[in-house]
Design a protein that fits this description.
Blueprint: H1 2-23, H2 26-44, H3 49-72, H4 76-95, H5 105-156
Helix pairs in contact: 1-3, 2-3, 2-5, 3-5, 4-5
């Protein structure tokens, strides 16, 4: 039982760190809260449950990715701005095909959910390539520091 409680405590601490990281971006936090509320409203208003579920899953993925970006990057706002601009343009090109004459709540949820997944689709490849660059840079820095420490130890002998 103590083991289970310790696991739960660790998970809660990790969740707390993630939420603190997301809350440091005021705009992102407001967007996530709005999307979460819209997801709950979708379930209450009788919109097909799949849309609310997809929206909440998208919110959870975005929260996790924002936390990773906050922890790993020096200038995360610039990185997110670049991705957001591209995803907004992509959504705009998709919205050109939507018929807004019969605008319903279901259509609004579909558009919001589509934007979430477009944002995730734009964010993931950029994030993975940036993480690879950071990893390669860390490996090179580690190799250089090891090489320098080897040279300095030879000079002292």
């Amino acid at each position: 039982m103590k083991k289970i409680l310790s696991y739960i405590k660790q998970d809660l601490e990790l969740f707390k760190e993630i939420m603190i990281a997301v809350m440091s971006y005021k705009v992102a936090f407001v967007i996530v809260v709005i999307l979460f509320i819209l997801g709950l409203v979708a379930d209450v208003k009788g919109v097909n449950a799949i849309y609310g579920t997809l929206e909440l899953v998208g919110v959870a993925i975005i929260i996790a990715l924002l936390a990773v970006i906050k922890m790993c990057f020096d200038k995360p706002v610039q990185f997110l701005a670049k991705v957001a601009i591209f995803s907004i343009m992509w959504l705009g090109s998709c919205l050109a095909l939507v018929d807004f004459n019969d605008f319903t709540l279901l259509l609004a949820f579909k558009i919001i959910t589509a934007f979430e997944y477009i944002f995730i689709g734009c964010l993931l490849p950029e994030l993975v390539s940036k993480m690879e660059e950071l990893r390669e840079k860390a490996i090179q820095d580690n190799a250089l520091s090891t090489e320098k420490s080897g040279i300095s130890s030879e000079n002292h002998v």
